[in-house]
Amino acid sequence: MKHPDQYRGRQVVVLGLAKSGVQVAKTLHKHGAVVTANDKKEREQCPEASELEALGISVVCGGHPDDLIHEDVALVVKNPGIPYTVAPVAKALELGIDVVTEVEIAYLLTHAPIIGITGSNGKTTTTTWIGKMLESAGLHPIVAGNIGTPLCQAAEDASTEEWLVAELSSFQLKGTQDFRPAIACLLNVAETHLDYHGSMEDYITSKAKLFANQHETDTAVINWDDPVCRKLIPDIRAKLFPFSLTEVLDMESVYVRPSYVRGQDDELVRSIVYRDSEGNERKIVDVHEIALPGRFNVGNALAAIAASIAAGAAPEALVQPLRTFRGVEHRLEYVEEKQGVAYYNNSKATNSKATIMALGALKAPIVLIAGGLDRGSDYMELVPFLKGKVKALVVMGQTKEKIAHVARLAGLSDIVVVDTEDSAAETLRTALKEASSLAVSGDVVLLSPACASWDMFKSYEERGRIFKEAVHTL
Q1: 26-50 per-position pLDDT tens digit
Q2: Could you tell me the domains of the chain?
Q3: Where does the record place the Mur ligase C-terminal domain (predicted)?
Q4: Does residue 110 have a known ligand-binding role?
């Protein structure tokens, strides 16, 4: 697509009045485009409409009019979550109109180098961690994207002396054309969002767009242990900078090296090591020093280290953030201990892989609260991880019977299906009370749904906040 300046006087349609949609409408309007912002929600559900209209932006709420998209429209910018099957998007594509997400606009506007981070799990944790590492190294990060601040807003404010650190979803990346991060980081790929993408092939292709426009002078940070990530390597033109939990790699990389410390008892110590392009190794920290629990967070740490070093951070500057960063809300977040039972909020676990990671991170017996939106998964991959790890299960939402069935296959006998006509909040409170009654001192009650939240809640954040409030008032 063209630079936003080249849409001056031309008609642009922005679909969706979420935070990013409002910002991109303002941005394109400021650059001279004739912007129409559209949302299917009714006017009273679009509080942002008045703000946009005050700027001279046309706003249409309450549906998608048939004449919204026509041959004189030069560009459509859609909210990432809007499917490509929705009528105005399908019509735009039929007419040959560019359809992009806000990420594309931000890239064309910014003068700052971009670190783009994507993956099925761990994006927010890794993005935040990279921001803290770059701060520690004096490299001036601006953390934005799918994590909070709209990328367009951050892009226009960023200078060439700063790094734009952007969390990116597959939805956002699918709507890019020229987007080119200086450093691209792919954490992992698991089966998720198939209701949106339609197939794993489309999902993987969308993730891979992170690397599509990179040059040989750019850097691709990639998970060497993930077979899907490995398959993408032959098509990546950028300089490869892999990370691995399981292999000592013979290239510039970050990995875990096990070694024995000789003493009264030989002790196996696992250390995070950076290997430079000349083959020199430098230990950064021992794995046990990382503040965040769980093997998967060691993987997130490796990715953050690789991206930060690629951006110019000195390895020694990364030690303190590794030792002190304690995570992000709703990601295996410790809430409180009551009567010897520890409560954890992992509401961001919107797929089975994320729940499996959480189960592996906790050592105590677990009473698991799971269930939510049914996206067609069978959840069978949970079976081996429920055995011996989860002592009881409480399920709710559209997938409650599916997950209960999987738990029975895993040999669980304490299974509570919460099936009420109460509000979503009250249903979650009931699930928490059931879980608490099944837990004893020394156990963990873990909210880790393995499902998206939209069958009951507006977002995983809302689900997590209600859970935490309910824990505090038990």
Answers
A1: 999 999 999 999 999 999 999 899 9
A2: 10-100 (3.40.50.720), 105-324 (3.40.1190.10), 333-472 (3.90.190.20)
A3: 330-451
A4: no
